[in-house]
Amino acid sequence: MTTNLEPVQTFKILIIGDSGVGKSSLMTRFVHGVFHAPYNATIGVDFQIAIVNSGEFKCRLQIWDTAGQERFRSITNSYYRGADGIIIVYDVTDSETFVHLKDRFLEIQQFCDSDVPKILVGNKDDDNNQQNKSVLSDDAREFAEKHNLLFFEISVKNSKNVAEVFNAIARLALKRRLEQSGSMPSNIDVKRIQKNKSVDNSANRKCCNT
């Protein structure tokens, strides 16, 4: 592939969602490979960096963990500008965090370009939480399809699908940049993203039927 892009690309990735859904834990689990619970609420924003390889490119992810509390909304809204990807998190055991996703999308529509890639993530999909699960996988999947989102159910506690989420958002952000630069994204494994999505959805359906 011929491209005028540098082999190291930097992307601004936002993690958004209500307070308590596990945004900080998600970032820390991916960047440092550890899990801390309970986690203190983020004040304003937190920021960490991770490297993801995608084809011939190294994707340098600037991961921004935004506060979920309403009183910080005016601060965190400014961080939407210039975002290259957004990870939208809800808690599968708390239906209110899923209901509030519509408010998050209003913010995204107001402050972000429409083509910024977005991934929907249901956290706390732990084995011991199945009986407490209040957001059905089918409902979340329907929401994701309506808004043209990739969808993952994850467990930050046991690391289920955590790396897959960040690998997917990196590939999507890189694909968008290559398209904007006029380069053909032939080495970006978009089919693999779709395959992973299908596998995850199949697993989710099995989960819901148990």
Automatic annotation (TrEMBL):
Ranges for region Disordered: 185-210
Keyword Lipoprotein belongs to the record: yes
Compositional bias (Polar residues): 199-210
Keywords: GTP-binding, Lipoprotein, Nucleotide-binding
Protein name in the entry: Uncharacterized protein
Pfam name, any one: Ras
A single GO molecular function term of this UniProt record: GTP binding
Xref: InterPro entries: P-loop_NTPase, Rab, Small_GTP-bd, Small_GTPase
Keyword Nucleotide-binding included in the entry's annotation: yes
